[in-house]
TrEMBL record:
Keywords: Membrane, Transmembrane, Transmembrane helix. This is Cytochrome biogenesis protein. It comes from the Bacteria. InterPro entries: UreH-like_TM_dom. It holds the Pfam family DsbD_2. Signal peptide: none annotated. The chain crosses the membrane at residues 6-34, 55-75, 81-100, 135-153, 165-186, 207-225. The keyword Secreted does not apply. Residues 8-215 form the Urease accessory protein UreH-like transmembrane domain. It comes from Photobacterium galatheae.
Length: 226
């Protein structure tokens, strides 16, 4: 796996934290704030295990798609297949940059791809509520990790071209680690964090960084065709 892909995936999670708060912040806040009988440290253990479960799902998804694509490319013997996929991943990075910079919101439309699966697995998450112990938060997070999310699906395009299952898992784990600061601080510094993430200079600067990396990756992929 290219090391820069690991950092790119981490950056997607970190810079896309505003979207993460919108998608998962409510349930994370409910985990910590909805337990008045628990001490602060006990509440935080729920949040830690919930996020550990969420990251586990990301890693599993990355391993599955990374291994599957690498296997198909190997069996087909088409060496250019991964280059086409990497070009597609670069395009997804560009779309993410446009989303984070608030120039175009089209990337959220791909969330519809996972809605059918989510309808089947979401009842399992609801059956675990209310969470009776921190250990129940882990399987809850595992299920919640499959929530349809444009950022997750976009990062999966990078896991697909990682080269093997282990590298695909690492790409998605890096993405998950990038989301952790926002998800762990929610309910503790939620309002301050939202204010920082909504800063237009921060958004535009972050978007331009991702856009530059996406364009560079696409250029490298196209150059390798010649």
């Amino acid at each position: 796996m290219v090391t820069s892909d690991f950092f790119a995936a981490f950056a997607i999670g970190l810079l896309g934290a505003g979207h993460c708060l919108g998608m998962c912040g409510g349930i994370a806040a409910a985990i910590t704030m909805g337990m008045p009988g628990q001490r602060q440290g006990q509440r935080f253990s729920f949040l830690i295990l919930y996020n550990a479960g969420r990251l586990a799902s990301y890693a599993i998804a990355g391993a599955l798609i990374g291994g599957a694509v690498a296997g198909m490319a190997s069996l087909s013997g088409i060496s250019s297949a991964l280059l086409y996929l990497r070009l597609g991943a670069a395009l997804m990075m560009i779309l993410l940059a446009l989303y984070i910079g608030q120039w175009w919101q089209g990337v959220t439309k791909i969330e519809i791809l996972g809605q059918s699966l989510w309808r089947h697995i979401s009842p399992f998450a609801k059956s675990l509520l209310p969470l009776k112990s921190p250990f129940a938060a882990f399987p809850f997070g595992v299920i919640w990790g499959w929530l349809p999310c444009g950022l997750v699906y976009s990062t999966l395009s990078w896991a697909a071209v990682a080269g093997n299952a282990a590298s695909g898992a690492m790409v998605m784990l890096a993405f998950g680690l990038g989301t952790l600061p926002a998800m762990l601080l929610v309910g503790v510094m939620a309002e301050r964090l939202k204010h920082w993430l909504s800063n237009q200079l921060f958004k535009k600067t972050s978007a331009l960084m991702l856009l530059s990396y996406g364009l560079h990756t696409g250029y490298v992929a196209i150059a390798q065709f010649s």
